């Protein structure tokens, strides 16, 4: 059996190894713990780099072992087993390559994902429902957990919804979805069966680690309570358990009605607010994130990032990367990995 071809791609092992060794020298200094805060930062930075390089080392060793086995196998059964193993290693390589595109510290974190309906009325609310299902199915496929934070129902579907998606690199992957999503189809709500265009906006924020301190003074916010709506059950609809928090300076509004407890809803709304404030001030102060600021400013109904066409043909197309998929059913069932991977590649080059 011939040896498998190289997977391709690039990985700057020397640069990462040099940084690890630099941190190691600093850690071995006698006065290292004189500054506990700096010490923790160095240890964390070194750990992140090791987590980047160790899986690659493990993969390379497995490829070498597989390559050696290819030289000695003879029967069909062993060849089939090696091909299965090769496919497993190829998937591991693709997963590691995707992770290598992540440059921000919080890419590894959980994510808050919010969908708002745009132009299109009833159609747009149904479109939000469809996108909510798409991202929920995507999370299932990634074995991520989801928690509903807030849901506002409207005629035809959902006006807005916020969920927390829990899993490694959830934020790094899903931030590719920020922007306007356009749907073109024959409306199921139109007796004349005319073609309609609907819009929805998607926002994604990282769930902030407790170690990151975001100070919010009582005078900086306004807290309102109201009766929960939607699938909260009779109890929540009879009490003012839902909480809305408005950050006065920025105008950022967060809300939660997922729990029967007003106290727990307040904690969750505050958690979401801290994440959004972190992103807001980070983008404002960090010149490196200017492109992200511009992206958020461009979330207007005339600047869609992706179109989902169900009529007169089937096609989902990303307008940034030009990647497209004609299997609309598969995409709406949560198979959006290719769109995310193409975005990460495109972003690394732009």
Give a verbal description of the structure.
With 350 residues, the chain is α+β, with helices and mostly antiparallel strands. The protein is built from ten helices and eleven strands. The protein has three domains: 88 residues, Methane Monooxygenase Hydroxylase, Chain G, domain 1 (Up-down Bundle), CATH 1.20.58; 167 residues, 2-Layer Sandwich (Alpha-Beta Plaits), CATH 3.30.70.1660; 66 residues, Double Stranded RNA Binding Domain (2-Layer Sandwich), CATH 3.30.160.20. The strands form two sheets. It has an eight-stranded mixed β-sheet, with helices on both faces. A three-stranded antiparallel β-sheet has the order 6-7-8, with helices on one face. Strand 9 and strand 10 form a beta hairpin. Helix 2 runs antiparallel to helix 3. The protein is flat, with a radius of gyration of 24 Å. Its main location: cytoplasm. Belongs to the prokaryotic/mitochondrial release factor family. It holds the Pfam family RF-1.
Question: Number of helical runs?
Answer: 10
Helix content: 40-55%
For this structure, what is the CATH class of the largest domain? Alpha Beta
Please state the overall shape, judged from the principal axes of the Cα atoms: flat
Q: What percentage of the residues does DSSP assign to strands (E)? A: 15-25%
Oligomer: single chain
Q: In CATH terms, what is the architecture of the largest domain?
A: 2-Layer Sandwich
- Which ranges are low-confidence, i.e. pLDDT below 50, for 5 or more consecutive residues? 1-10, 231-236
Order of helices and strands: HHHEHEEHEEEHEEHHEEEHH
Tell how many strands the DSSP assignment holds: 11
Total domain count: 3
C-alpha Rg (nearest Å): 24 Å
Q: Report how far the terminal alpha carbons are from each other.
A: 41 Å
